[in-house]
Amino acid sequence: MSISSVSESDDILDYNITESLANTPEYTNNPADENTSSKKSGVTYLQSSKFKLGTNISSKGKKLLPDMLNAFVLWRITVSVGLLAVHRFWSHRAFKAKLPLQIFMCIISFALGQGSIFTWARDHRVHHKYVDTTADPYNINRGFFFAHIGWLMCRKHPDVIESGKKLPTDDLKADPIVRFNRKYYFPMWALFCFILPTIIPIYFWEEKWVDAFFVAGVLKYFLQLHSTFCINSVAHKFGYRPFDKKIEAKESFFTEAVQPGEGSHNYHHVFPRDYRTKEHAFTFNSSRVFIEFMAAIGQAYDLKWTSDELIKARKLKAANDNKMKEDEAFLCKEWSQ
Ligand SMILES: [Zn+2]
Ligand SMILES: [Zn+2]
């Protein structure tokens, strides 16, 4: 056994004894012993460090829950209201809105952080008009990754740019709120997407700014981007097509789960001006609830939707088209044998 190892063991033993003695009144009240006093201060230091460490761990644990709840609530509000603003209101004009509601939707669209209203709405109109072609900005035929996020990492296809110029955007250019949004997009995006969400945890539960920024800013932004991107990727790749089998847009349960109200994408491509964006009323659609609440208090009006008869007729037509295709395929197979 080496000397140093004996010494270490003794120190540990000594520390344990000292620590237990430190809690007894006799030991604490013996200032005469210099050696004891220095050990006592060492113990006090260790105990206070241990206490501080424990406090930090427990306070972090206590703050993690409100941090995550804050990020979750901001994520859901931002995508529900922000998307209905840029998508259902400015892209498709599925309803009309009074000025206070338009201003509110414009603010939330800054927090959404997916480009200016003008750019979002123009690209989305191009997507609907030229879906699944080279002019589609998020063309799923260029692969899942491209449709999800890859389209933001490369130059636009010339057909996308050409088609964007051809499509009517006069209503957007004439809209003063859209013009304001386009002009001040970047400073407002920084303010509403990152700065204000970071201030909430710092102000209300004294969170450290780094933790507040990464949870309420970065994590929340990550969630709101990818849940939206799933509409262009997942909802164009996986699912079923009860309304139009010729397009890649599908009814996607996964997209519906991460982006309530936007998973019924086959329906939406067939009836793009329906403010509900889906057929069924019984599944959760936070954007629809918001629009109907705004209509109830007089802020939204002239809501557009598709009648049940038309929905049924379209479903029947799609089923018949598919049946005809199956029959044709069967006859061709028979003939070739
Ligand atoms: Zn689509
Ligand atoms: Zn749309």
Automatic annotation (TrEMBL):
Cofactor(s) demanded: Fe(2+)
Keyword Electron transport: no
Fatty acid desaturase domain ranges (all copies): 78-273
Chief localisation class: membrane
Record bears the keyword DNA repair: no
Assigned keywords, A-Z: Fatty acid biosynthesis, Fatty acid metabolism, Iron, Lipid biosynthesis, Lipid metabolism, Membrane, Oxidoreductase, Transmembrane, Transmembrane helix
A GO BP entry: unsaturated fatty acid biosynthetic process
Family annotation (InterPro entries): Acyl-CoA_DS, FA_desaturase_dom
One MF term in the entry's GO annotations: stearoyl-CoA 9-desaturase activity
Membrane topology according to the record: Multi-pass membrane protein
Cellular localisation: Membrane
CDD domains referenced in this protein's UniProt entry, alphabetically: Delta9-FADS-like
Notes on the domains: The histidine box domains are involved in binding the catalytic metal ions.
Family named by the database record: Belongs to the fatty acid desaturase type 1 family.
The protein's name: Delta(9)-fatty-acid desaturase fat-7 like protein
Organism: Argiope bruennichi
